[in-house]
Amino acid sequence: MSIFRFQSATESAFLKRSHAPSAVRAWLVDMLCWPARFADPQVEREFTEEYGRRFADFRRAALVLGTLIWVCFGFWEISLAQTSTAFRPYFPEVFAFRCAGAIGATVGIVLAFRLEFHRDKVAHWILLSGLAFMCFCLLMQTVLAPRPFNFTHFFVGFYLILFYLFGFLRLRAKATLMLSACVIAVIVMAQLLTQAVEPDNFAAGMFYLLNVAVLGHSVNVNAERHVRDRYVAVQALAQSNDALQSANAELAQKHHDLERARRDQQTKSEALIALREQQREAAEQASRAKSRFLAAAAHDLRQPMHALNLFLAAADEALEARDIEASGKLIGEARKASVLTARLFNAVLDLSKLESGHVDPTYTSVDLSRVTEDAVEQLASFAASRGVVLRYARALQKPAWVRTDADWIPRVLSNLIANGIKYSDPSKAGRSTVLVGLVRMPNYVRIDVLDNGIGIASEHWDAIFQPFVQLGNPERDREKGLGLGLSIVNAVVSLLEGHRLELKSIEGHGSRFSVRIPVADQFAHEDAAISSADAALSPSPSSLRGLYVLLVEDDSLVRASMEALFARWGVLSDSVRSAAELGELLQTIERVPDLVISDYRLPENATAHDVIRLLGEHVARPVPCLVVTGEAMASTQGVLPERCVLSKPLAPDLLIARMLELTEASGRAT
Predict the structure, then answer these.
(1) Predicted TM-score (pTM) of this structure
(2) Could you identify which of 271, 304, 420, 583 might form a hypothetical disulfide with 340, taking C-beta atoms 3.0 to 4.6 angstroms apart as the criterion?
C-alpha cells in the first residue's frame, strides 16, 4: 500500500512540474489583464453605477490629499531656490507649472463636488483628466529644471503620481493602464527630443517607473476583480433573498387568493346582474325616448301635410270654378304649408344626423360680425311682425374672424335669435326687445342673444334643449316654432371643436344665450373674406339660363318636378332614371353638360359613385356633380366635398345657389 502511495505522490509531483509553465502564464494573465466586463450590458451598467456611488467620497478625499501633496512640493521648490544658486534661475518657470498644476487640481476638486461625481464615468473623466494635466506639468518641470535637479527632484515625482493613480483613486484597471502607458510614452518622447535627463539616470528611472507601473497595474487589477466578485456575490445573495421573499409572498398571496376568489366570484355575479339590469333599463329608456321623438315628429309632420292636402284640394276646386284669385291664394297657402313641412322634416333629419355623429364639420375662417348682421337682417321682418325690437349692438366695425363651420354657425345664430323673438313677453307690448352683441376676447369671440321675454325657470334649463320641448305651448301651435331649434343649437355647439353654449335666465325678466367661438388664424382671413363676398351675392334663376344639366333621378314625381323647375328657369336638361341610362345618354349627347344632378341611391344597386365614374369615362373635362338625396347617412366621403351633397326636401333658392356655385367654380377651373 505504501508503494502505491509513493508512486502516486511521485506522479503528482511530475504532473505539477510539467504544468508549471502553463500555470505561471495563466497566473500572469490573471494578474495583468484587466477584468472582463459583465456579459449583460444591464449588469455592467448597474455595477458601474454602484461602483461610482461606493467610492465617490473616497475619491474626493484622495483628490484633496493629492492636491495638498502637490502644493507641499511647491514649498520645497521655494526652499531649494533659496539654497541653490544653480536652481534659482530656473525657479520662476518651474514654479509656474507647479502653480498651474495646483490650479488644475483645485478645479478638479470643485468639479468633484459640483458635478454628478457619484457617476463612475464622470468621476473617471475628472480624475484622469486631472492626472494627465498633473503629469504634463511635472514633465515640463523635468524638462525646464537643470541637471541633476530634473532627475533627483522632479522625475521621481512620476513614481508618486503612479502610486497615487493605482492605489488611491480606485479607478478601473483598464483606464489606469491606458493613462500610465500614455504618460510613459510621452516621457520617452520628451527625452528623445530634449535629452533633458542624463541618459544613465533616465534609463534607471524608466526601469523603476516601468516596475511601478506593472506592480501598480497588477494591484489595481486584483482590486477591481475583488470588487466585481464581491458585487456578484452580493447580487446573488440579494437575488436569493428576493427569491425566498417572493416565494413566501407567493404562498401568502395564494392563501389570500383562495379566500378572495369566492368573494370575487360572488361580487362579479352580483355586478353582472346589476349591469344587465342597468343595460335593460337604459335600452328601455332609449326606446321610450325614440318612440316619443318619432311620435312627436309624426304629429308635427302630419299637421302641415294635412293642411297642404286640403289647400291643394281647395285650389283644385277653385280652378275648376275658374276662380283664379282664390286658387292663387290657396296655392300660396299650400306653399307655406309645404315650406313648413320641409323645414320640420329637415330639422328632424339634421338633429338625427347631429346626434348620431354622422356630421363631419368643415372648419374655415368666418367673419362672425357679417354672419350676425345677415341673421339680424333676415329676421328683422319676423321680429317686426311680433312687435319685437331686434337690435344688433356692434361696438367695432372691423370683422370678427372665428374658426367654425360656415354652414352650421349661421343656423345656430338664427335659431337663438328666432327663439328670443318667439318667446317675447306679451305683457311688454311695445317694449319687447332682442339684443344681439359680439364680445371680442383674445382667444375667442362670444356672441350674446339677450331678450326681455318670459324667461326660463332654472328647473327647465336642461329640458328646453330636448327635441319638441316648448315651454308655454302645450297646444303645439306651429306659429310658435317647431320645438327643435334649441336642440339643434345644443347638438351643433357640442359637435364643433372649441365651442361652448351658456344660458342665463330669470323667469319673468328674460334670457341670455351665449356661444363662445375660438378665433381664427389671422393668415386665413383674406381667403375667407373673398369667399364671404362671393357668398353674399343673392342667387337668381336668370343666372342659370342656358345651362345644360343632366338629371339622374329614379323617382318619377321628383324627376317631373325638377324638369318643370328647369323649364321655368330656362335650363336645358336631359333626365334619366338610372346609371345605365346615363351611360347610354352620354354616348349620344353632342354637348358636354355644365352640371350633373343625381340622386344618391339609384336602381340596380347603383349609387352616385357610379354616376361620377361614368362621367370620368365618357367626358374629357371634369363636370361638377351635385347629389340631392333623401338618405340621411349617404356617404360621398373621399369622392365629393360636403357642399356637393344636399338633402331632400330642398328649397329652390338653395338649389339655385349651389348650382351657380358649382358651375362658376368649374368655369374658373377650366
Answers:
(1) 0.42
(2) 304
Nearest residue to 66 (alpha-carbon basis) of 10, 3, 8, 137: 137
Confidence of residue 539 (pLDDT cuts 50, 70, 90): low
Give the DSSP per-residue string, 609-631: HHHHHHHHHH-SS---EEEEES-
Region 173-201: mean pLDDT is 85
What is the average pLDDT across 514-525? 74
C-alpha cell at position 208: 523603476
623-669 pLDDT tens trace: 888 888 877 555 555 556 666 788 777 778 778 888 888 888 776 66
Grid cell 319676423 in the structure block, residue: 382
Q: What is the Cα–Cα distance from 550 to 545, expressed in whole angstroms?
A: 15
Q: Which residues, 6+ apart, have CB-to-CB distance to 531 below 8 Å?
A: 364, 406
Q: What is the grid cell recorded at 465?
A: 334643449
Q: How many helices (H) and strands (E) does the chain have?
A: 18, 14
| C-alpha closest to that of 141 among 76, 93, 183 | 93
Question: Which single residue is written with the C-alpha cell 329637415?
Answer: 346
Enter the CATH code of domain 541-669.
3.40.50.2300
pLDDT tens, position by position, 441-452: 888 888 888 888
Distances (CA, A) of 329 to 214, 479, 570: 120, 19, 26
CB of 300 closer than 8 Å to CB of 477: no
Chain mean position to CA 125: 40
The domain defined by 360-534 carries CATH number 3.30.565.10 = yes
**Residue written as grid cell 507641499:** 72
